[in-house]
């Protein structure tokens, strides 16, 4: 990844908005291209409900043209499921194409390198469970920066997720990512079609901590999570369920739910799925 880049007017952002949110404020940047997807959440902490009470929320990744006074800082947003404000994030760095697949045998496929043509990502905070944690996402210079604050009173988690169509992980056995970690503990969450008690099952495992990995000159490390390391959970609680089925994968996510209050920052350069 480059350490510096010239300014650009094309910027990538992650925004989270409830379907009933107020109209977009007039002073937000004009939208050049907006891709929005709907996600129905049923107390979607670490497993979602297929029936019962749900909260409909919409996440968008947008290319924006920032105003002349724009900075790298995102506008403030509420993450409550009942009151969420549209968020537009302006950045000053361009996307680049320096991310490369480190697999020499060709047995890894790139899920995303955040160069602008990958899948849509969305933020899911614990507001859907009455919590007060706040996560945000910013795609800048071919890196996804997932950051915010965890509040353990309430849900105690926040996550960044992307929906899958069921083909991305076929014939793979682990995921690999180039990440820059802080001192917090982050986990992978994968979903397939399994349910327990009418609720969707999440299959999760933690990344190694920063003190447990070797980092390069830029502070990034390569981390891997094998599917046989995954444990099934619903609402963060262990359940009896089958092993994760990569051929039926519906969602990939990264989560922080380490039981510690305070700020966090995780940077992701690329994510691969490997045989």
Strand coverage percent: 35-45%
- Give helix and strand order, one letter per element, not per position: EEEEEEEEEEEEEEEE
Mean pLDDT across residues: 73
Report the total helices: 0
| Name given to the CATH architecture | Sandwich
Percentage of residues in helical conformation: under 10%
CATH superfamily: Galactose-binding lectin
Tell me the total number of β-strands: 16
Please tell me how large the radius of gyration is.
18 Å
Going by helix content, strand content and strand pairing, the class is mainly beta
Widest β-sheet, arrangement of strands:
5-8-15-10-11-13-14
The coarse silhouette is: globular
Described by its quaternary structure, the protein is: single chain
Unreliable spans are 1-104
Count of the domains: 1
Largest sheet: 7 strands, antiparallel
User: Whole-Å distance between the termini?
Assistant: 25 Å
CATH class call: Mainly Beta
Task: Please give a structural write-up.
- This protein is an all-beta fold and 275 residues long.
- It has a single domain (11-274), classed as Galactose-binding lectin (Jelly Rolls, Sandwich).
- It is built from no helices and 16 strands.
- Strands 5-8-15-10-11-13-14 form a seven-stranded antiparallel beta sheet, with no helix packed on it. Strands 4, 6, 7, 9, 12 and 16 form a six-stranded antiparallel beta sheet that branches. Strands 1-3-2 form a three-stranded antiparallel beta sheet, with no helix packed on it.
- A hairpin with a 2-residue loop joins β10 and β11 (199-206).
- The protein is globular.
């Amino acid at each position: 990844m480059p350490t510096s880049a010239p300014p650009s007017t094309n910027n990538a952002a992650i925004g989270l908005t409830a379907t009933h949110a107020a109209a977009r404020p007039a002073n937000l940047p004009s939208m050049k291209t907006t891709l929005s997807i709907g996600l129905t959440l049923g107390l979607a902490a670490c497993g979602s409900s297929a029936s019962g009470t749900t909260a409909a929320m919409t996440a968008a990744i947008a290319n924006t043209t920032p105003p002349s006074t724009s900075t790298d800082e995102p506008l403030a947003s509420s993450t409550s499921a009942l009151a969420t404000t549209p968020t537009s994030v302006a950045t000053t760095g361009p996307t680049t194409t320096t991310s490369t697949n480190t697999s020499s045998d060709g047995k890894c496929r790139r899920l995303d390198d955040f160069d602008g043509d990958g899948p849509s990502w969305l933020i899911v905070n614990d507001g859907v469970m009455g919590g007060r944690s706040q996560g945000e996402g910013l795609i800048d210079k071919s890196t996804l920066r997932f950051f915010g604050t965890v509040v353990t009173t309430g849900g105690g988690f926040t996550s960044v997720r992307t929906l899958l169509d069921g083909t991305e992980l076929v014939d793979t056995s682990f995921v690999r990512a180039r990440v820059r970690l802080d001192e917090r503990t982050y986990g992978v969450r994968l979903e397939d079609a399994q349910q327990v008690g009418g609720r969707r099952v999440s299959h999760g495992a933690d990344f190694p901590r920063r003190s447990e990995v070797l980092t390069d000159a830029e502070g990034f490390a390569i981390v891997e999570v094998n599917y046989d390391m995954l444990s099934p959970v619903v609402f963060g609680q262990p359940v009896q369920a089958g092993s994760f089925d990569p051929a039926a994968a519906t969602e990939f996510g990264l989560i922080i739910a380490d039981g510690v209050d305070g700020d966090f920052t995780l940077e992701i350069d690329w994510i691969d799925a490997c045989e």
